[in-house]
Design brief:
Elements: E1 11-14, H1 19-30, E2 38-44, H2 58-68, E3 73-78, H3 81-86, E4 96-100, E5 103-107, H4 130-145
């Protein structure tokens, strides 16, 4: 069974500047997804700050991809990004910021104080490889629910 791509109000494609998001976009277009319903979403690992984990070329590349396909691009990030979360000491996890057609929204950041002070482990488990969960999955979740 194939989904009726024309039945969706919006189709969100998460793009990191790598091959997976681009392949997903191309597959959707080839399958007949209405381009006017597709949105590209990019999560800034560095929290819209100085380059720490994101390649400096990633933001401009993702913007060019959106421009070349005439698609809207919305960015999201956790305030302070990877570096702030890695060095968090007696502070709540930072709020998430995301762009919408109506402007920028800030959500969260009122949780309990906690301390991380460590680099993420190399593991398939998101319970110890916290960077994907904290800087991508949770950011996307808050933006989708926002």
């Amino acid at each position: 069974m194939r989904p009726d791509l024309a039945s969706y109000d919006r189709i969100i494609v998460a793009v990191s500047g790598g091959k997976d998001g681009t392949a997903c976009l191309l597959a959707l277009l080839e399958a007949g997804a209405p381009a006017e319903r597709i949105e590209l979403w990019h999560h800034e690992l560095d929290g819209a700050g100085r380059s720490f984990m994101d390649w400096p070329s990633t933001g401009p590349y993702v913007a060019a991809l959106a421009r070349d396909f005439s698609l809207p691009l919305y960015r999201s990030w956790r305030e302070g990004g990877f570096e702030r979360e890695m060095l968090r000491d007696t502070a709540p996890t930072a709020p998430v910021v995301f762009e919408t057609p109506d402007g920028v929204i800030r959500a969260g950041g009122q949780g309990p104080e906690g301390t991380r002070l460590r680099f993420p482990q190399i593991s398939a488990s998101l319970s110890v490889r916290w960077c994907s969960a904290s800087l991508k999955v949770d950011v996307a979740d808050r933006a989708l629910r926002g």
